[in-house]
Design brief:
Oligomer: single chain
CATH architecture: 3-Layer(aba) Sandwich
Structural class: alpha/beta
Number of helices: 10
Largest sheet: 7 strands, mixed
CATH class: Alpha Beta
Strand order of the largest sheet: 8-7-6-9-10-13-12
Order of helices and strands: HHEEEEEHHEHEHEEHEHEHEHE
Bound molecules: zinc ion
Helix content: 25-40%
Shape: globular
CATH superfamily: Vaccinia Virus protein VP39
Number of strands: 13
CATH topology: Rossmann fold
Distance between the termini: 27 Å
Length: about 300
């Protein structure tokens, strides 16, 4: 996965006091719903003083007012954001990546294997998929040395600002990236422009409608958590998706949704048998903690 977990980013500002956050990120800007162009209604303030809000029309949840992104670039996404070990594919991620690649291969002809990995991070997926015979390129706001070592062609910057010339990709993938962006609808519309005719979009994000996140939200509402709404990770996550709200955005960008899944990552503290039962239950109810959406360009 390209984005770090809460633990990985806690070396920076995540988890620190409201005062530390306020001094590192002094300026805030209001955000409108990208779909409805309306101001949202606040539903919570998290343990770091960050505001969580929801669009009254479409239900999309997001951070508003939010820190200005230029300040976040230095305070949150510093050089330490990605770590060398993220460049390697561990067993949990290997299973998840293999699942994504199997779904993509089912949607595409064998000769159509040109993928753009938006927000490629330390490049683990670039390596994984190129070893399976795909042609792969990546983008990132800051291109890391580990991604460069993958040998893939890389593009620096936010997707909407990159000029790919006449190149079109069979797959555009955002894996734990869309929730970090300035405007997810602008990103998805740009993806629609750079994907080939009937090409595939893959978006993986955290699922705020997942069972585990819902339980934590209730605990936060009831004041049972010492660090309320920490599971939203609002310091670096700016958008919080459910299967329904993500689907609406993707359709508005010009895609037709093919498949929505809520995968469950393996956990070392859970037995394989229990994981199997738990995964089956949560994936059937679309209540897993992750959300993977596959769509085809209309
Ligand atoms: Zn809306």
């Amino acid at each position: 996965m390209s984005g770090p977990s809460e633990t990985e980013s806690s070396r920076s500002l995540f988890g620190r006091s409201r005062e530390d956050v306020a001094s590192a990120l002094p300026d805030r800007e209001p955000v409108l719903c990208p779909l409805c162009r309306r101001p949202p209604q606040r539903f919570a303030i998290d343990f770091q003083g960050l505001h969580l809000a929801r669009c009254r029309s479409c239900g999309l949840q997001f951070h508003s007012p939010r820190p200005v992104l230029e300040q976040m670039a230095t305070a949150v996404y510093g050089a330490a954001y990605h770590r060398p070990e993220e460049a390697e594919v561990d067993a949990r991620h290997e299973r998840h990546y293999a699942r994504q690649v199997a779904r993509l291969e089912r949607c595409l002809d064998v000769e159509r294997r040109h993928l753009l990995d938006v927000g490629c991070g330390a490049g683990a997926f670039l390596r994984f998929v190129s070893e399976r015979g795909w042609e792969v390129e990546g983008t990132d706001v800051v291109v890391t040395d580990w991604a460069r070592a993958s040998g893939a062609r890389l593009w620096a910057g936010e997707l909407p600002t990159i000029d790919f010339g006449t190149t079109r990709y069979d797959v555009v993938r955002f894996n734990h990236v869309l929730e970090h962006t300035r405007d997810p609808l602008v990103e998805l519309r740009r993806a629609r422009e750079v994907v080939s005719p009937s090409g595939i979009l893959l978006v993986g994000v955290p699922n705020v409608a997942g069972l585990s996140l819902r339980l934590k939200s209730w605990q936060s509402r009831l004041g049972l958590k010492s660090k309320r709404w920490r599971h939203y990770a609002a310091l670096h996550h700016l958008w919080f998706f459910t299967p329904a709200t993500l689907q609406r955005l993707v359709e508005a960008a010009g895609f037709e949704v093919i498949l929505v899944e809520t995968p469950v990552m393996d956990r070392p503290d859970r037995s394989p048998a229990l994981t199997g039962v738990y995964r089956g239950l949560l994936e059937t109810c679309r209540a897993g903690s992750l959300l993977d959406l596959y769509a085809r360009a209309r």
